[in-house]
Design goal:
Number of helices: 22
Strand order of the largest sheet: 1-2
Oligomer: single chain
Order of helices and strands: HHHHEEHEHHHHEEHHHHHEHHHHHHHH
InterPro entries: Azg-like, Azg-like_bact_archaea, NCS2
Structural class: mainly alpha
Protein name: Permease
Shape: globular
Membrane topology: Multi-pass membrane protein
Number of strands: 6
Family: Belongs to the nucleobase:cation symporter-2 (NCS2) (TC 2.A.40) family. Azg-like subfamily.
Subcellular location: Cell membrane
Length: 494
Amino acid sequence: MSSGSTDGQGDTGGIAEYFDFDEYGTDLRTETIAGLTTFLAMAYIIVVNPSIIAPAIMGEYPDAIEPGMTTTINGETFVYGEVVQMLTVVTILASVIAILVMALYANRPFGLAPGMGLNAFFTFTVVLLLGVPWQVALAAVFVEGIVFIVLTAVGARRYIIELFPEPVKFAVGAGIGVFLLFLGFQEIQVVTGDPETLVTLGNVLQSPVAAAGLAGLVLTLLLYARGITGSIVIGILLTAVGAWLATFAGLVERGTITPTEEEVVTSVQYDFTPLVYEFVDGLGMITEDPLVFALVVFTFFFVDFFDTAGTLIGVSQIGGFLDQEGDLPDIDKPLMADAVGTTAGAAMGTSTVTTYIESSAGVEEGGRTGFTALVVGALFALSLVLVPVVTAIPTFATYIALVVVGIIMLQGVADIDWQDPAWAISAGLTITVMPLTTSIANGLAAGIISYPLVKSAKGEARDVSIGQWILAVAVVAYYGVYFAVQAGDVTFTL
C-alpha cells in the first residue's frame, strides 16, 4: 500500500491504511459520497428530535405549546424557541460523539443519533403519560447507557444477539427494507392514512408533496438504474432545489413543500448547560420511586437493544459484513458506539442514541469503513454553524433515500429457506411485523418468540438452545410490562 500518495480516486495512503480501504475494496471518494448520503438521509433528526423532546421539558403536549411559552430550567426562564435551540445543539453533539466512536473505534460506516420512537416514548409515555419528571427520565437513559457500556465490554450484548434464530437474522434486512419503504412512501405522501383501510394511495394531483416527492423518487431511481455514483445524494439535492424553485416561482406557498420560516432555525442557543444541571438533579431524584425508575430503564433498555441489534444486522447484510451464521464480526465495537452516545446524550439533555437505518443509504452508495461514519460526524459538527442550511432541506426530499434503499434491501429474502416452516414463519413474521407496527424491535420479537414454538411443533425442540428459550420468555415478559405501561396502570409520584 502506498503512503502519502493517491490511487487516482483521491484517497491518501494514511487515511486508506487507517480505515483499511484495501481490505474493503473502497476509496476516499466513494466513502465521502457515502457519508454525505447517510447524513442527508438522517439530517432531519436535527430538527425533529428537538421538537419531540421539547414538550417533555415544557411539560405540555405539542398542541398546547405556543411559541412564546416559557419554562424554568435551572432557575432561568427560557421561551419555547430557546429550549428547541438548546436541544438542537445537544442532538448534534450527542450524534457526533457516538459517530466518532463508530468511525475511529469500530471502523464501521454507520451513523448514529437520538432515536426516533425512543424520543417519542421518552416524551409522551414516560414524561407526559407516566408523570416521570424529565430530569429523572434523562437519568434513566443515562443508567441505560452505563448498563450498555458494561454489557458490551464483557461481551454480553454480543452473546444475546448471537442467540437470535438464524432465520430472524437473515430476515432483518428485508424487514427493514419494507419498513423503509413504508416510512418513505408515507413521508412523500404517496401512501396516506385512511379511516377504513388504515392506509391508501395518495392523490398526486391534489398533494404538492406527493407530486414533488414522486418526481424526485422517479429521478433518483433512474439515476440509480443508470449506475450514477451518488445517485441518492443527487436525487435528494435536486428534489430540494426543485421544491424551493417552485416556491420562489409562486407555484406553491411557502411551507407547502418547503420548510416554513419558523421551521428554518436562523439562530442557535449554544449554551445547553442548564439542561446538564437539571440532569444532575434528576440523578438525585431516582430514589423517589425506584420501582418505576427501574421499569423505565428496562423499557428504554429493551427497545434500544433490539432496535440497535436489528439495524446493525440489517444494514450489515446489504454491506456484506455478515458471516455465514448471520453474525456481524466484532459487533461489540459498533455496539459500544451507541452505548457511549446514549450515556453522553442523556447527560446533555436528550433521549437514547442509536444506530440509524438511514445508514443503509450510505452503505448502498459504497460506504464500507469508518471513514463514511467520520464524514457523517463531520457534517453533523458542521451543521452546528450551518443549521439554517440543514433545516432548509425539505424533510420529504430526504425520505426519497429510504424508498430507494428499501427496494434494494428486499434482496435479503433470497437468503431465507421458505420451504422450512420454522424459517418461513419466523422470518415472515419478522419481515411483516416491522412495517406494520413501525418498529424493528417488534419485528425481531415476533421472530424470536415464534421460532422455538414452531421448532417444537415440528418435533425439533432439541435444535432450540436454552438461551433461545430464555430470550423468548424474556421478550414475552417485556411485552406484558409494556402493555401495562401503555394502559396507564403505572404512574410516578413525588
